[in-house]
Write a structure and sequence with these properties.
By secondary structure, this protein is α+β, with helices and mostly antiparallel strands. Helices cover about 50% and strands about 15% of the residues. The N and C termini lie far apart (about 120 Å).
Length: about 170
């Protein structure tokens, strides 16, 4: 043990320098850790307080209330959408109109055939024939896209026009 103490005594100046370097190194590490800790604390303070001074907890609670309100509205919208989709099957969505001259002595395409039906193919064809002295109106029912009555060329074109997704011309 006395040999160790003599070696320490011989190299005391080096050991003091090493200890001094270690103390300075540890001081630098402590200073860096303090600066880092200060930055982290500032970030937490920013996170925990907004510009209104609200805490993160109150902001999260407010967000959850808002989210619950949006979810309730979404559920309500989904119920309404389901009802609308069921009603949409019965809505008249297919319409075809063909105007024509029914008689040679009457011009201006005043006669017409109007076909209208829903997605199930249920509806009607209304045909109006305009003459000089009279006007006749006919209605033919459509069931599942078919009618029991014979269709004129104009009524057939109105049916095809109603089925077509292309832009529709009023005068043909």
């Amino acid at each position: 043990m006395s040999g160790l103490l003599t070696k320490i005594a011989q190299h005391a100046d080096v050991l003091i320098l090493v200890q001094f370097a270690l103390i300075i190194g540890l001081g630098i590490v402590v200073a860096l850790m303090t600066a880092s800790n200060r930055r982290v604390n500032q970030r937490w303070a920013t996170l925990l307080k907004d510009e209104r001074g609200d805490s993160l907890e109150s902001l999260l609670y407010e967000h959850l209330q808002h989210r619950d309100a949006i979810q309730a509205q979404l559920d309500d919208d989904e119920r309404r959408l389901s009802k609308l989709e069921m009603r949409l099957d019965k809505a008249v969505r297919h319409v075809g109109l063909v105007r024509f001259d029914a008689f040679e002595d009457v011009g201006g395409n005043q006669s017409f055939a109007l076909a209208f039906f829903d997605d199930n193919g249920d509806g009607a064809i209304i045909t109006s024939l305009l003459g000089r002295n009279e006007c006749r109106v006919y209605c033919k029912p459509i069931t599942r896209g078919r009618t029991e009555r014979t269709l004129s060329q104009e009524e057939q074109r109105a049916m095809e026009d109603a089925v077509s997704t292309a832009p529709k011309a009023i005068v043909s």
